[in-house]
Each structure stands twice: as structure tokens, then as C-alpha cells.
Design a protein that fits this description.
The structure holds two protein chains of two kinds.
Chain A lengths: L1 H15 L3 H34 L5 H12 L3 H12 L14 H25 L3 H9 L4 H11 L1 H16 L3 H7 L9 H11 L2 H27 L5
Helix pairs in contact in A: 1-11, 2-5, 2-8, 3-5, 4-5, 4-9, 5-8, 5-9, 6-7, 8-11, 10-11
Chain B lengths: L7 H14 L15 E6 L1 H5 L2 H13 L2 E6 L2 H9 L5 E4 L2 H9 L3 E16 L13 H11 L3 E3 L5 H13 L10 E3 L4 H11 L2 E5 H7 L6 E4 L6 E9 L9 H12 L1 H9 L2 H4 L5 E2 L11
Helix pairs in contact in B: 6-7
The chains are: A mainly alpha, B alpha/beta.
Chain lengths: 232, 291
């Protein structure tokens, strides 16, 4: 129990003293996971909506793929993305390996199926009559789709939170494609593992507390957005 | 009427996107080289001991290069070298390093430093190995007694050294049995496991000293020649792998054997642990080490 107390004290110390290293790591974590979530939303919401509203041969197979993708182990994604980004790989010339962009790519791959599947479920759940009613009231395609998105706001924000939660907490992919390089690709999760390996359990606990605080802050903000009374 | 509030989230997101790619401060350096990035593949022990936290910033300041230190196990580091995924290697598995040098993958192979391995175990020493002069003899006793031995099991330099000692003792460790447990993890983690299970393990002295506050293991065997832990640095051959940063790698090798750096290495750890964690060896004859 003393260890937990030490960890909490250390976390407080780091925050109050504005420890530059921990702030750098935290800021990078926020940027990388935020960017990956953003990309996954830009890809996932349209794709999820498309899958929800259309029927074509192979559609169910694609849906099952997306659902399967939600459970992809991050370290497996990291390994596969590494193979593409290594110098010996097809995209080696882009020199992306061991850069924050590589982590963003891997995390976007992890988050996208989550966002697609949640969006699909949220949109598909809407009463199909609403679609017809919107069109009957004179909405064009785009306006109808936008109204559906607003209608499914609850589920869509859950999608964003699930996507963000999934990537801010992963360590396997960040480790593999990022390399935990100080000042460049060290994020909160990889820093935690490193400190554990070094035997600095109090520091590891402190970092984990900061990670939890970060994840909670973002999720709380999104929850507030989600639970806002509609009619704005 | 479009309210400004609706666009706020969008503005925040755009700022995010921009900030991700912005702001890379570069401190002015005497000569900024053309290709700044060097990928250094090294072992977890050089990182975990904190030595690289001292050397890398010093090197970067002196040369203007930016080092991407990828600290994996020696096995992975050597493989990265074999595939040209790294520019320079700092590892401690001389037998395997030799293969790389012989095959022409590793060039400019230089001795850097050494420290030693020790066998540690629980205070009550069930296998009675404390003070045994020969490491192979000690492992033999552990095996005969059936006491728990915890191995790295991860192709690291330490793991390879451990396997070499078993070989010298003429024993094949009983993998998968309760008395030989492989963690597949780093030294710190392995020490924690050994401590919790009250078993023996082979560790480098530096990590042991750094972990002492967390574990209940004592030094059982030390000082024998087979327990020397020798570190070399080498470049990955640019003729075989044109994509490597040859100039940067060369600069790093030269840095590691430079007199100033060797001094830093020999002083590292003295203030914290009362003894140096590494012994600087550049330029020495390897056969003379440990005498």
C-alpha cells in the first residue's frame, strides 16, 4: 500500500513542479492519440454510416470484419505496421519508423474498426421511417445524412470515446513502431513500461496516475457533450 | 444563424492537427549534418542503467546528430543490424557479434566497456552456492538440487551468457519445468520475478544495484572470467545496406571510443552507487580484460 501512496505523491510532485519531461510525454500522448482518433472518426463515421444505410453483396462480411477489427491486439497491429514501415518494407523510403507519425498510423488502424462498428450500430438503430420523413420534408442527401448523424449523437460520441480510450491505453503498437525514444516517441504507456522495467515502481505508478487523469479529462469532456440536452 | 460556438470544436481539432507536426526545436549546432537521424539499436541494459541518458545528449550536443535509441534485447538489436534497420549497434554478445562481423554486416567493430555478471539468489541459499568460484559449478549445484532458476529467455546478451555457462557445465536446462523458468522479459522484470519466487538468476551488476531496493536477493557468485560482460559498438555496413546513415554511425562509433566519453563511462554510477557501473576499455586487448 505504501507503494501506491508513494506513486500518488510522486505524481503530485511531477505535476506541481511542472516536470518538463513528463509534460512533454503527456502532451505527445494527447497529440498522437488525439490525431489518431480524429483520423479514425473521419474514416469511420462515413464508412459506418454507409454500411448502416446500404445493402449490397458482401456487406455483412464487411460488417463482420469491422467487428472483428475491434478486437485486434494492438501489438499485432504494431508488428504488421512495422513490417510496412521498416527500411526493408514497401514504405521504408518515407522514413516514418520511430516517428510520432508512425504511432498515429498504427493507432488509427486500431481505432478505426471501433469507430466504424459503433457508428454502424448507432445509425442502423435509427428508425428507418425517419429517413423517409426527412426526405419527404425536402432534405437533400447530405442534409439527411447530417440529421441522422445528429440523431445518433449518443452512439457516435460513444464511438469516439471508445476509439480514444482504445488508443490512449495501448502500448504494444506504440512500442513497436515508435520505439519509446526520449523526446520523440515516448508516450505515457511506453514510459510506464520502461520505468517498471527499470524498477522505478513509484515513478511508474505516478505516470500511470497522470495517464488516468488525462484519459478521464478527455472522456469527461466528451461525456458532457454526449449528455447535453438536445435542442441546440 | 450560424453560431460561432458550433465551430469551436472544429477549430480545436485543426489546431491539434497542426500542433502534431509543428514545433521541433533544434538548438544551433556547430555543423548540422545532412542526414541528422541515427538509429542506434542497443540493449535494455545500457538504457535501464541510465548510461545512455548521459552519453546520448552529450553526443548530440557535440555532433548535431539526433540519435533514435531503440532499446530492445541484444537478439533483436543484432537482427535489426542484419536487416539494415539500424545504423549502429551497441550490444554485448561477443559470440554472435563475431558472426555479424565475419559476414561483413558489422564494420568498424570496437570494444567499448565491460562490467560483470553475477549470480544472485535468496538469502537462505538452498543450493549452497554462495562463494563458489566457478559459475558453471554453481549452476551445476542449482540443477542438481532442483532449485528454482529464473532465466531471461529472450535472446538478450545476458541470456546468451547464461546459456554459455550452462553449456560449460555440460547441462541442458530443463525448460518448462518448475525449476527453470523463462520470463522472456528484461533484467529488471526478471530480477523481480526471481525475488518473488525466491530463485536464482544471472544478472549484470548494474541492474542488480539499481534494483536492490526492490528485491530480496543476495550476490552468490562473482568475479570469474566467464562472468565478464563485454560491450562492443559497430556500424552496419553501408555497402550492404545503402540506406544506413554511414557518416552518423561512424561519428557514433568514434564518440564511444573517444577519451572524453571513456572517462564519462568510467565515472558513471559512482556518485549514486559508490562504485562505477561500467569499466571503460577502448583500445585494450580483449584477452587482458578482467585480469
Amino acid at each position: 500500500m505504501e507503494l501506491i501512496w508513494q506513486g500518488l505523491v510522486k505524481a503530485l510532485e511531477m505535476l506541481v513542479s511542472l516536470d518538463p519531461e513528463i509534460f512533454e510525454v503527456t502532451w505527445l500522448t494527447l497529440r498522437v492519440s488525439g490525431m489518431a482518433t480524429l483520423i479514425s472518426v473521419l474514416i469511420g463515421v462515413p464508412l459506418g454510416t454507409l454500411l448502416a444505410l446500404t445493402r449490397f453483396p458482401g456487406r455483412n462480411f464487411l460488417v463482420s470484419l469491422s467487428n472483428f477489427g475491434m478486437g485486434l491486439p494492438p501489438v499485432v497491429v504494431g508488428l504488421w505496421v512495422s513490417i510496412f514501415l521498416w527500411r526493408s518494407g514497401p514504405f521504408g523510403a518515407l522514413r516514418l519508423i520511430y516517428t510520432p507519425v508512425a504511432i498515429v498510423i498504427a493507432q488509427a488502424v486500431i481505432a478505426s474498426p471501433i469507430v466504424i462498428s459503433f457508428t454502424l450500430a448507432a445509425i442502423q438503430q435509427i428508425n428507418p421511417r425517419i429517413r423517409l420523413q426527412l426526405l419527404a420534408l425536402g432534405a437533400n442527401r447530405l442534409q439527411m445524412l447530417w440529421s441522422l448523424v445528429k440523431e445518433a449523437r449518443m452512439g457516435l460520441l460513444a464511438a469516439v470515446m471508445a476509439g480514444f480510450g482504445g488508443v490512449v491505453s495501448e502500448v504494444g503498437a506504440s512500442m513497436m513502431v515508435g520505439g519509446n525514444i526520449k523526446g520523440e516517441t515516448r508516450v505515457l504507456t511506453t514510459a510506464t513500461v520502461m520505468e517498471v522495467n527499470k524498477g522505478n515502481f513509484d515513478v511508474a505508478l505516478a505516470i500511470s496516475v497522470i495517464l488516468l487523469l488525462l484519459a478521464y479529462s478527455v472522456t469527461a469532456a466528451l461525456t458532457a457533450l454526449q449528455q447535453r440536452r438536445s435542442g441546440q | 444563424m450560424l453560431s460561432k460556438k458550433r465551430y469551436l470544436p472544429l477549430i480545436i481539432l485543426v489546431l491539434f492537427a497542426v500542433s502534431l507536426f509543428g514545433c521541433t526545436q533544434t538548438t544551433p549546432t556547430p555543423t548540422t549534418p545532412e542526414n541528422k537521424d541515427i538509429i542506434l539499436a542497443t540493449t535494455t541494459s545500457t538504457q535501464d542503467s541510465g548510461l545512455l541518458d548521459v552519453l546520448i545528449p552529450d553526443f548530440e550536443k557535440k555532433t548535431g546528430y539526433k540519435v533514435k535509441t531503440v532499446a530492445v534485447g541484444t537478439g533483436a538489436a543484432l537482427t535489426m543490424g542484419e536487416k539494415g534497420e539500424a545504423d549502429v549497434l551497441l550490444v554485448h554478445a561477443p559470440a554472435d557479434e563475431k558472426k555479424l562481423v565475419d559476414s561483413g554486416v558489422g564494420i568498424n567493430y570496437q570494444l567499448v566497456m565491460h562490467n560483470d555478471f553475477i549470480i544472485v539468489g535468496p538469502e537462505n541459499d538452498p543450493a549452497g552456492i554462495k562463494g563458489t568460484k566457478s559459475a558453471a559449478e554453481a549452476l551445476k549445484k542449482i540443477s542438481e538440487k532442483g532449485s528454482i532458476f529464473v532465466s531471461r529467455g529472450d535472446n538478450s546478451g545476458t541470456h546468451k551468457a547464461e546459456l554459455a555457462i550452462w553449456k560449460a557445465a555440460g547441462i541442458t536446462p530443463a525448460k518448462g519445468s518448475a525449476s527453470y523458468q523463462e520470463t522472456g522479459a528484461g533484467m529488471g522484470q526478471t530480477l523481480t520475478v526471481a525475488s518473488q519466487k525466491e530463485g536464482y538468476t544471472l544478472t549484470d551488476r548494474a541492474t542488480y544495484l539499481a534494483q536492490q531496493k526492490n528485491i530480496k536477493l543476495n550476490i552468490m557468485v562473482e568475479g570469474e572470467k566467464s562472468l565478464l560482460n563485454i560491450y562492443h559498438v559497430m556500424q552496419v555496413n553501408p555497402e550492404k545496406f545503402p540506406k544506413v546513415n554511414a557518416a552518423g554511425a561512424k561519428a557514433f562509433v568514434e564518440y564511444m571510443i573517444a577519451a572524453d566519453t571513456q572517462k564519462l563511462i568510467s565515472q558513471f554510477g559512482v556518485d549514486k552507487y559508490g562504485q562505477a557501473l561500467f569499466f571503460a576499455d577502448a583500445g585494450k586487448n580483449e584477452a587482458d580484460l578482467g585480469k
